[in-house]
Specification:
The protein has 587 residues and is an alpha+beta fold. A four-stranded antiparallel sheet has the order 6-9-5-10, covered by helices on one side. The chain is built from 19 helices and ten strands. A hairpin with a 2-residue loop joins strand 7 and strand 8.
Length: 587
């Protein structure tokens, strides 16, 4: 008998230790989601602001850690809880660290900290490309210090008033995503749209909505995969047993996959082509939607959540942009706010009594009780967040300001806020420093004298160019990119040995085929073209023109244009030769 009891104690202890390890692994996965958010937000915005986005995602975690240590964790998880509303700060983590550890608070602190950082980082995407960095740091600190800890305590502290009512938000559709989402909405409204996003007519009414595509859809997609991977820790870390964990992994996989498929089909039918950026948003929307009920819904319930999330994210993103003219570059409001609310309400509708949580959803039992509690809970959380963050944004706007200047926004926040010419080093303008020298330059012979002929290279002197001595003609050919190789080969066959080739953007009267980015028609009046510049003297101009026409002609709009110009002179820099000789090959 004693042996059996001892065995049970040992098994229970081992299970507790395993759970503790998994809990911390889950916290690490959630922390890794910061990288995913940073990549999605950076990819969906313009390159000139990439460093600013990365800096904001870094600092919201670091600032959040500082304020969460000082006060946030106590307000959220303190044992002394005032009226079921707010924790009474005890600062044990700073004043009595030994007691803090013995009380088992360390895992809870780490886990709730990374959750807190997620709520804060959601906001940066909606206000990207025009918000002052100092203002971002302040309102991010406010979220982590006071706004999130108070409402999250209602949801997850055993003494919280929503916990006592029976409110269910397993991993944070309401406590995290709705909070970040509604803050993003308020912030986007108060900071205003990006320059050039909405064009107004003379009466001040928005006449046109412009699409501003992100600079790297690849980066955004990689961020989405990282977030999905981290979400298994986000939803699964609090699972107490293997059955619950397995169920959570199943629902966390089904909902985003279904949402993405639905969005792909929806945008395909609506716009004629599947929208890549919207499908990325849909994956995240499905993850947000299943977060509250990942332990309470069945596989069928997860499918329903995914279907609604896939449609909801597209409708909300386009409604905010096209109808309300609220500029949210990454779709944070549609993903986190709309689907955070939907996921919370979905628990009241779709909770399966046979799922690990054992809750009674309306569609299974006919009981409205859980649904009523879920609606009350999400309404209270949104009201608290809206009041606090509206006040915060208002104070910032009236004091230090929320928005950068017009000049700073045009130049990009990387340069103006952080002194980065570009977050992508290969595109930074660079100058050779003559102090250090480079191989191949140290022993170069300087050019001296009055003539532009290099003393380092022996050349044949030629007569200076005289007006009318020769005729030079520049032929500029604009054509479609796929026709360039055929054009180049044809030019070589008639004796053209030199040409300058450039990638350019241009259009004719047709303006190209309309395309859509996040539901907004992209201005397709600048299409990728090839420009070939040729200067001829010996070869007849008409021969070049006719050859180009024969090669480029297809009979379709956009075959290209040919422009012909007179050229006064040609000078070869290396030798100083001018005129006809400057165009000839080296013998």
């Amino acid at each position: 008998m004693i042996t059996e009891e001892l065995t049970k104690i040992v098994e229970a202890t081992a299970q507790k230790e395993v759970f503790g390890v998994w809990f911390l692994i889950g916290a690490a996965l959630v922390f890794f989601m910061q990288a995913g958010f940073a990549m999605v937000e950076t990819g969906f915005t313009r390159a000139k602001n990439a460093g600013n986005i990365i800096m904001k995602n870094l600092m919201d975690f670091c600032i959040g850690t500082v304020v969460f240590v000082l006060l946030g964790f106590s307000l959220m998880m303190a044992e002394d809880y005032a009226l079921g509303f707010i924790g009474v700060p005890n600062l044990k983590i700073l004043t009595d660290f030994g007691a803090f550890l013995k009380g088992g608070n360390a895992p809870s602190f780490v886990f709730n900290l990374v959750f807190c950082a997620t709520a804060a980082t959601i906001v940066s995407g909606a206000m990207a490309e025009r918000t002052k960095f100092i203002s971002y740091c302040i309102y991010s600190g406010v979220i982590s210090l006071f706004v999130y800890p108070v409402e999250a305590g209602w949801v997850w502290n055993q003494n919280g008033w929503l916990v006592k009512l029976g409110f269910h938000d397993f991993a944070g559709s309401a406590a995290i995503h709705s909070v970040g989402g509604i803050t993003a909405l308020i912030g986007a409204i108060m900071v205003g749209p990006r320059l050039g996003k909405y064009i107004k007519d003379k009466s001040g009414k928005v006449d046109k909505v412009n699409a501003i595509p992100g600079h790297s859809i690849t980066l955004g997609a990689l961020g989405c995969f990282i977030l999905w991977f981290g979400w298994y820790g986000f939803n699964g870390a609090a699972a107490w047993d293997g059955e619950s964990l397995a169920s959570i992994f199943v629902t966390t996989t089904i909902a985003p996959a279904v949402a993405t498929c639905v969005t792909m089909i929806f945008t395909w039918v609506k716009n004629g082509k599947p929208d890549v950026s919207m499908c990325i948003n849909a994956s995240l929307a499905g993850l947000v939607g299943i977060t509250a009920g990942c332990d309470a819904l069945s596989a069928f319930g997860s499918v329903i959540v995914g279907v609604v999330s896939g449609i909801l994210v597209v409708v909300i993103v386009e409604f905010l942009d096209i109808k309300l003219h609220i500029d949210d570059p990454v779709g944070a409001v549609g993903v986190h706010f709309a689907n955070g609310v939907w996921g919370t309400v979905a628990v009241g509708l779709l909770a399966d009594p046979d799922a690990p949580a054992g809750l009674n959803g309306l569609f299974y039992t006919g009981s409205f009780k859980l649904l009523g509690i879920q609606i009350l809970g999400i309404a209270a959380i949104l009201a608290w967040t809206a009041v606090m963050m509206t006040a915060t944004f208002f104070v910032l706007k009236k004091t230090i300001g929320l928005r950068v200047s017009v000049e700073e926004e045009i130049s990009g926040l990387d340069k103006t806020e952080h002194g980065l010419p570009s977050a992508y080093a290969d595109f930074v303008p660079a100058m050779e420093n003559p102090i250090y020298g480079y191989d191949g330059y140290e022993n170069a012979v300087a050019v001296v004298g009055e003539t532009p002929v290099s003393e380092a290279i022996p050349v044949k002197k030629v007569p200076a160019f005289e007006d009318g001595a020769s005729k030079f003609t520049k032929i500029e050919i604009i054509c479609k990119e796929p026709r360039f190789e055929a054009l180049k080969n044809a030019m070589m066959e008639i004796g053209i040995t030199g040409m300058t080739v450039s990638h350019v953007l241009g259009c004719g009267t047709q303006k190209g085929q309309p395309e859509y980015y996040r539901g907004v028609q992209v201005e397709a009046n600048l299409l990728p073209k090839i420009q070939v510049d040729i200067v001829v003297s010996k070869i007849p101009v008409r021969q070049v023109i006719e050859t180009a026409k024969n090669v480029l002609y297809t009979g379709h709009i956009g075959d290209g244009k040919i422009f012909v110009y007179d050229v006064e002179n040609v000078v070869k820099v290396r030798t100083g030769e001018e005129g006809y000789d400057a165009l000839q090959d080296v013998e």
